[in-house]
From TrEMBL:
Keyword list, A-Z: Cytoplasm, Metal-binding, Methyltransferase, S-adenosyl-L-methionine, Transferase, tRNA processing, Zinc, Zinc-finger
Gene Ontology CC: one annotated term: cytoplasm
GO biological process, one term: tRNA methylation
A GO term for molecular function: tRNA(Ser) (uridine(44)-2'-O-)-methyltransferase activity
Compartments reported by the entry: Cytoplasm
UniProt organism field: Rhipidura dahli
Gene3D superfamilies associated with the record: Zinc finger, CCCH-type
Protein name: tRNA (uracil-O(2)-)-methyltransferase
Catalytic activity: uridine(44) in tRNA(Ser) + S-adenosyl-L-methionine = 2'-O-methyluridine(44) in tRNA(Ser) + S-adenosyl-L-homocysteine + H(+)
Residues of the C3H1-type domain: 263-293
Zinc finger (C3H1-type): 263-293
Gene this chain is encoded by: Trmt44
Entries under InterPro entries matching the protein: tRNA_uracil_MeTrfase, Znf_CCCH
PROSITE patterns, alphabetized: ZF_C3H1
Superkingdom classification of source: Eukaryota
Higher taxonomy: Eukaryota, Metazoa, Chordata, Craniata, Vertebrata
Length: 296
Protein backbone atom coordinates (compact mmCIF):
# COMPACT_ATOMS: atom_id res chain seq x y z
CA UNK A 1 0.00 0.00 0.00
CA UNK A 2 3.04 2.26 0.37
CA UNK A 3 3.43 2.79 -3.38
CA UNK A 4 2.36 1.40 -6.75
CA UNK A 5 5.89 0.08 -7.36
CA UNK A 6 5.90 -1.90 -4.09
CA UNK A 7 6.48 -5.66 -4.28
CA UNK A 8 6.18 -8.11 -1.40
CA UNK A 9 7.15 -11.51 -0.05
CA UNK A 10 5.38 -13.07 2.94
CA UNK A 11 5.86 -16.37 4.80
CA UNK A 12 2.63 -16.88 6.80
CA UNK A 13 3.16 -18.44 10.21
CA UNK A 14 0.99 -17.44 13.20
CA UNK A 15 -2.74 -17.22 12.57
CA UNK A 16 -3.51 -13.50 12.97
CA UNK A 17 -5.94 -11.13 11.29
CA UNK A 18 -5.65 -7.31 11.25
CA UNK A 19 -7.39 -6.98 14.63
CA UNK A 20 -6.46 -10.13 16.56
CA UNK A 21 -6.31 -13.88 16.12
CA UNK A 22 -7.69 -15.28 12.88
CA UNK A 23 -11.07 -16.98 13.31
CA UNK A 24 -11.81 -20.07 11.23
CA UNK A 25 -14.86 -20.01 8.96
CA UNK A 26 -14.56 -23.32 7.11
CA UNK A 27 -14.32 -26.84 8.50
CA UNK A 28 -13.52 -28.50 5.17
CA UNK A 29 -10.00 -27.03 5.10
CA UNK A 30 -7.15 -27.35 7.57
CA UNK A 31 -6.52 -24.28 9.70
CA UNK A 32 -3.20 -23.69 7.89
CA UNK A 33 -4.70 -23.93 4.40
CA UNK A 34 -7.59 -21.66 5.32
CA UNK A 35 -5.19 -19.07 6.70
CA UNK A 36 -3.01 -19.30 3.58
CA UNK A 37 -6.08 -18.60 1.46
CA UNK A 38 -6.84 -15.55 3.61
CA UNK A 39 -3.30 -14.18 3.18
CA UNK A 40 -3.58 -14.73 -0.58
CA UNK A 41 -6.94 -12.93 -0.51
CA UNK A 42 -5.30 -9.91 1.08
CA UNK A 43 -2.85 -9.79 -1.83
CA UNK A 44 -5.64 -10.03 -4.40
CA UNK A 45 -7.65 -7.27 -2.69
CA UNK A 46 -4.56 -5.07 -2.76
CA UNK A 47 -4.38 -5.56 -6.53
CA UNK A 48 -1.49 -8.01 -6.88
CA UNK A 49 -0.96 -11.03 -9.06
CA UNK A 50 -0.32 -13.38 -6.12
CA UNK A 51 2.11 -16.23 -6.69
CA UNK A 52 2.46 -19.15 -4.28
CA UNK A 53 5.71 -20.99 -3.65
CA UNK A 54 6.98 -23.66 -1.25
CA UNK A 55 10.34 -22.90 0.35
CA UNK A 56 13.02 -25.54 0.82
CA UNK A 57 13.42 -24.98 4.55
CA UNK A 58 13.14 -27.37 7.54
CA UNK A 59 9.74 -26.14 8.69
CA UNK A 60 6.15 -27.35 8.58
CA UNK A 61 5.07 -23.83 7.55
CA UNK A 62 6.98 -23.12 4.38
CA UNK A 63 4.34 -21.91 1.91
CA UNK A 64 5.08 -18.34 0.84
CA UNK A 65 3.38 -15.72 -1.31
CA UNK A 66 5.01 -13.26 -3.69
CA UNK A 67 3.47 -10.14 -5.21
CA UNK A 68 5.62 -8.82 -8.06
CA UNK A 69 3.08 -7.19 -10.37
CA UNK A 70 -0.26 -5.38 -10.19
CA UNK A 71 -3.62 -6.27 -11.68
CA UNK A 72 -4.51 -2.63 -12.43
CA UNK A 73 -2.89 0.44 -14.07
CA UNK A 74 -1.37 3.27 -11.96
CA UNK A 75 -4.34 5.55 -12.69
CA UNK A 76 -6.61 3.29 -10.59
CA UNK A 77 -4.40 3.37 -7.50
CA UNK A 78 -6.79 5.65 -5.56
CA UNK A 79 -9.74 3.32 -6.26
CA UNK A 80 -7.81 0.28 -5.06
CA UNK A 81 -6.71 2.17 -1.97
CA UNK A 82 -10.33 2.86 -1.00
CA UNK A 83 -11.06 -0.83 -1.66
CA UNK A 84 -8.30 -1.76 0.77
CA UNK A 85 -9.77 0.58 3.39
CA UNK A 86 -13.16 -1.07 2.95
CA UNK A 87 -11.57 -4.51 3.28
CA UNK A 88 -9.80 -3.58 6.53
CA UNK A 89 -13.03 -2.17 7.96
CA UNK A 90 -14.89 -5.34 6.99
CA UNK A 91 -12.30 -7.48 8.76
CA UNK A 92 -12.83 -5.44 11.93
CA UNK A 93 -16.57 -6.05 11.65
CA UNK A 94 -15.92 -9.78 11.16
CA UNK A 95 -13.70 -9.81 14.24
CA UNK A 96 -16.44 -8.16 16.33
CA UNK A 97 -19.08 -10.48 14.90
CA UNK A 98 -17.00 -13.53 15.76
CA UNK A 99 -16.59 -12.25 19.30
CA UNK A 100 -20.27 -11.30 19.63
CA UNK A 101 -22.61 -13.62 17.74
CA UNK A 102 -25.47 -11.11 18.08
CA UNK A 103 -23.93 -9.09 15.23
CA UNK A 104 -24.89 -10.57 11.86
CA UNK A 105 -22.43 -10.85 8.98
CA UNK A 106 -22.00 -12.70 5.77
CA UNK A 107 -18.79 -13.97 4.21
CA UNK A 108 -18.12 -14.89 0.59
CA UNK A 109 -15.47 -17.50 0.01
CA UNK A 110 -13.93 -15.98 -3.13
CA UNK A 111 -10.41 -14.58 -3.05
CA UNK A 112 -11.48 -11.29 -4.60
CA UNK A 113 -14.56 -10.87 -2.37
CA UNK A 114 -14.93 -8.65 0.66
CA UNK A 115 -16.29 -9.73 4.02
CA UNK A 116 -18.92 -7.16 4.92
CA UNK A 117 -21.58 -6.51 7.52
CA UNK A 118 -25.19 -6.68 6.39
CA UNK A 119 -26.47 -3.22 5.35
CA UNK A 120 -23.49 -1.38 6.82
CA UNK A 121 -21.04 1.27 5.64
CA UNK A 122 -17.58 2.14 6.98
CA UNK A 123 -17.65 4.88 9.65
CA UNK A 124 -17.49 8.36 8.13
CA UNK A 125 -14.43 9.46 10.08
CA UNK A 126 -12.42 6.45 8.88
CA UNK A 127 -13.57 6.95 5.27
CA UNK A 128 -12.50 10.59 5.34
CA UNK A 129 -9.08 9.84 6.79
CA UNK A 130 -8.40 6.78 4.65
CA UNK A 131 -5.92 8.75 2.56
CA UNK A 132 -3.77 9.68 5.57
CA UNK A 133 -4.49 6.99 8.16
CA UNK A 134 -4.46 3.48 6.76
CA UNK A 135 -5.59 1.77 9.92
CA UNK A 136 -6.76 3.90 12.89
CA UNK A 137 -5.39 2.71 16.21
CA UNK A 138 -2.58 0.64 14.67
CA UNK A 139 0.66 0.91 16.67
CA UNK A 140 3.76 -0.54 14.98
CA UNK A 141 6.47 -2.04 17.15
CA UNK A 142 9.70 -0.17 17.78
CA UNK A 143 12.46 -0.43 15.14
CA UNK A 144 14.83 -1.79 17.78
CA UNK A 145 13.12 -4.61 19.66
CA UNK A 146 14.12 -4.90 23.31
CA UNK A 147 15.69 -8.23 24.28
CA UNK A 148 13.76 -9.57 27.26
CA UNK A 149 14.74 -13.23 27.53
CA UNK A 150 17.08 -12.68 30.53
CA UNK A 151 20.09 -12.74 28.18
CA UNK A 152 20.78 -9.01 28.65
CA UNK A 153 20.60 -9.06 32.46
CA UNK A 154 23.87 -8.10 34.23
CA UNK A 155 26.16 -11.10 34.67
CA UNK A 156 26.68 -10.35 38.38
CA UNK A 157 22.91 -10.36 38.94
CA UNK A 158 22.45 -13.69 37.11
CA UNK A 159 25.34 -15.30 39.00
CA UNK A 160 23.88 -14.13 42.31
CA UNK A 161 20.44 -15.59 41.53
CA UNK A 162 21.94 -18.89 40.30
CA UNK A 163 24.06 -19.27 43.46
CA UNK A 164 21.12 -18.37 45.70
CA UNK A 165 18.74 -20.88 44.07
CA UNK A 166 21.39 -23.62 43.98
CA UNK A 167 22.15 -23.19 47.70
CA UNK A 168 18.41 -23.27 48.40
CA UNK A 169 18.08 -26.64 46.63
CA UNK A 170 21.24 -28.09 48.16
CA UNK A 171 20.24 -27.10 51.70
CA UNK A 172 16.61 -28.12 51.39
CA UNK A 173 15.43 -31.08 53.54
CA UNK A 174 15.28 -33.99 53.11
CA UNK A 175 18.63 -33.96 51.35
CA UNK A 176 19.04 -36.23 48.34
CA UNK A 177 22.31 -37.91 47.49
CA UNK A 178 23.21 -39.89 44.40
CA UNK A 179 25.70 -42.79 44.65
CA UNK A 180 27.90 -43.66 41.73
CA UNK A 181 28.40 -47.42 41.88
CA UNK A 182 30.31 -47.73 38.61
CA UNK A 183 33.75 -49.25 39.06
CA UNK A 184 33.15 -49.80 42.78
CA UNK A 185 32.99 -46.05 43.48
CA UNK A 186 30.55 -45.47 46.34
CA UNK A 187 31.15 -41.74 46.76
CA UNK A 188 27.94 -39.78 47.22
CA UNK A 189 27.22 -36.43 45.60
CA UNK A 190 24.62 -34.07 47.05
CA UNK A 191 21.89 -33.79 44.44
CA UNK A 192 19.77 -31.52 46.64
CA UNK A 193 15.99 -31.30 46.71
CA UNK A 194 13.59 -30.29 43.95
CA UNK A 195 11.30 -27.32 44.58
CA UNK A 196 8.48 -25.77 42.61
CA UNK A 197 9.10 -22.46 40.86
CA UNK A 198 6.71 -20.81 43.33
CA UNK A 199 8.66 -22.14 46.31
CA UNK A 200 11.91 -20.90 44.82
CA UNK A 201 10.39 -17.47 44.11
CA UNK A 202 9.20 -17.17 47.71
CA UNK A 203 12.82 -17.27 48.89
CA UNK A 204 14.01 -14.47 46.58
CA UNK A 205 13.87 -10.82 47.64
CA UNK A 206 11.37 -8.36 46.16
CA UNK A 207 13.96 -6.42 44.15
CA UNK A 208 15.17 -9.59 42.43
CA UNK A 209 11.63 -10.72 41.60
CA UNK A 210 10.75 -7.25 40.28
CA UNK A 211 13.71 -7.33 37.89
CA UNK A 212 12.86 -10.86 36.74
CA UNK A 213 9.18 -10.04 36.14
CA UNK A 214 10.21 -7.49 33.50
CA UNK A 215 11.67 -10.36 31.44
CA UNK A 216 9.71 -12.86 29.36
CA UNK A 217 9.30 -16.03 31.41
CA UNK A 218 10.94 -14.42 34.45
CA UNK A 219 12.60 -16.81 36.89
CA UNK A 220 11.89 -19.90 34.79
CA UNK A 221 13.66 -18.42 31.74
CA UNK A 222 16.71 -17.46 33.80
CA UNK A 223 16.98 -20.96 35.28
CA UNK A 224 16.54 -22.65 31.90
CA UNK A 225 19.22 -20.38 30.43
CA UNK A 226 21.58 -21.76 33.09
CA UNK A 227 21.06 -25.39 32.10
CA UNK A 228 24.57 -26.28 33.28
CA UNK A 229 23.30 -25.89 36.86
CA UNK A 230 19.54 -26.50 36.72
CA UNK A 231 16.86 -28.63 35.14
CA UNK A 232 13.29 -27.31 35.09
CA UNK A 233 10.82 -30.16 34.60
CA UNK A 234 7.03 -29.87 34.96
CA UNK A 235 7.31 -26.65 36.93
CA UNK A 236 9.91 -28.01 39.38
CA UNK A 237 13.56 -27.00 39.68
CA UNK A 238 16.28 -29.65 40.07
CA UNK A 239 20.06 -29.57 40.32
CA UNK A 240 21.44 -30.82 37.00
CA UNK A 241 23.25 -34.12 37.59
CA UNK A 242 25.49 -34.59 34.57
CA UNK A 243 26.11 -38.28 35.39
CA UNK A 244 22.60 -39.00 34.17
CA UNK A 245 23.30 -37.58 30.71
CA UNK A 246 23.33 -40.14 27.90
CA UNK A 247 26.82 -40.85 26.51
CA UNK A 248 27.53 -39.67 22.94
CA UNK A 249 26.21 -41.95 20.21
CA UNK A 250 28.73 -44.47 18.91
CA UNK A 251 27.14 -44.32 15.46
CA UNK A 252 28.82 -40.97 14.75
CA UNK A 253 31.71 -40.95 12.25
CA UNK A 254 35.17 -41.31 13.79
CA UNK A 255 36.09 -37.67 13.06
CA UNK A 256 32.98 -36.34 14.80
CA UNK A 257 33.49 -38.64 17.81
CA UNK A 258 37.07 -37.41 18.15
CA UNK A 259 35.98 -33.76 17.96
CA UNK A 260 33.28 -34.41 20.57
CA UNK A 261 35.79 -36.05 22.93
CA UNK A 262 38.17 -33.14 22.51
CA UNK A 263 35.50 -30.47 22.86
CA UNK A 264 36.82 -27.02 23.56
CA UNK A 265 36.16 -26.03 27.16
CA UNK A 266 35.30 -22.34 26.97
CA UNK A 267 33.51 -21.99 30.34
CA UNK A 268 34.40 -22.89 33.91
CA UNK A 269 32.45 -25.68 35.59
CA UNK A 270 30.00 -24.15 38.07
CA UNK A 271 29.95 -27.29 40.20
CA UNK A 272 33.75 -27.48 40.41
CA UNK A 273 33.77 -23.93 41.85
CA UNK A 274 30.57 -23.74 43.93
CA UNK A 275 29.19 -27.20 44.77
CA UNK A 276 30.23 -28.47 48.25
CA UNK A 277 31.09 -31.89 46.76
CA UNK A 278 32.68 -30.45 43.63
CA UNK A 279 31.74 -31.69 40.17
CA UNK A 280 30.03 -35.06 39.84
CA UNK A 281 32.16 -35.89 36.79
CA UNK A 282 35.92 -36.30 36.47
CA UNK A 283 37.70 -33.55 34.58
CA UNK A 284 38.12 -35.60 31.39
CA UNK A 285 34.38 -36.37 31.22
CA UNK A 286 33.05 -32.91 32.13
CA UNK A 287 32.20 -30.59 29.20
CA UNK A 288 33.28 -27.62 31.32
CA UNK A 289 36.72 -26.61 32.57
CA UNK A 290 37.91 -27.71 36.02
CA UNK A 291 40.15 -24.72 36.55
CA UNK A 292 41.43 -21.93 34.29
CA UNK A 293 44.28 -24.10 32.98
CA UNK A 294 41.70 -26.20 31.06
CA UNK A 295 40.08 -23.24 29.30
CA UNK A 296 40.65 -23.18 25.52
Amino acid sequence: RSSYSCCYFVLPCCFFDFHGKYSRRQSKKTQYREYLDFVAQVGFVCGFHVEEDCLRIPSTKRVSFIGKSRTYPPAEHARIDSQITEFINSRRICAVATHDRTVGFKHKDHCDSLCEEVDSEPPEDETETAGTIWMPGFQPREKVEQIRNCASLPRDFVDEVVLSVANLLLNAAPQKSYSDMQGGNTNTWNQGESLSLREVAEHLNKETLKKLKSEYGGLQTLLKNNHQVFEVLNGRVHIHDWRKEKPPSRTKPEVKRRLSAEAFKTRLCWFFIHHPDGCSLPSEACPYAHGTEELR
